[in-house]
Design brief:
With 166 residues, the chain is of the alpha/beta class. The chain contains six helices and six strands. Strand 5 and strand 6 form a beta hairpin.
Length: 166
């Protein structure tokens, strides 16, 4: 199936035009290379209410099955993407960020500092990625091969859970 996605960049500096958004376009390209159609992209500041508003609106429209965020998952006081994600999700999916952190720990011990979250709102899966383009790419590559299977199950399609690849 051709899944549809959206990418939300969370960055004060990029939202003010002070720094180009490198993570959002990189994530969009990785998704497209994997066969996803990226329908929406946006850049927002590190404001929990604004992040949550985009996540709610994009999920509730029902046109995307996957929303990826990049940025705002660290320890800085303004890093609130996980809180925004948790506030809009009806069911959390802890295995996805656990898998990303496990893969990242093979690269850097700083991976344990990620507070990324993932969850489901309606028929949409929302996954937080780090703000660093390098880390976002590494994290997405760790889970991307399995996301399609999760989206298939979320959509209600028959899915063979014993099969390791889609």
């Amino acid at each position: 199936m051709n899944w549809k996605a959206a990418v939300l960049t969370v960055s004060d500096r990029s939202s003010r035009g002070e720094r180009p958004d490198e993570g959002g376009p990189l994530i969009s390209a990785l998704l497209q290379d994997a066969g996803y159609e990226v329908l929406r992209t946006a850049i927002v500041p590190d404001e929990q209410a604004e992040i949550a508003r985009f996540l709610r609106e994009w999920a509730d429209i029902g046109e995307v099955q996957l929303i990826l965020t990049t940025g705002g998952t660290g320890f800085a006081p303004r890093d609130v993407t996980p809180e925004a994600t948790c506030s809009v999700c009806q069911r959390m999916t802890p295995g996805i960020p656990e898998a990303m952190r496990a893969a990242s720990l093979a690269i850097t011990p700083r991976a344990m500092l990620s507070r990324a979250a993932a969850g489901i709102r309606g028929g949409t899966l929302i996954v937080n990625l780090p703000g660093s383009p390098k880390a976002a790419k590494e994290n997405l590559e760790a889970v991307l091969p399995t996301l399609g299977h999760g989206l298939q199950m979320l959509s209600g399609e028959a899915a063979d859970c014993a099969k390791l690849t889609d």
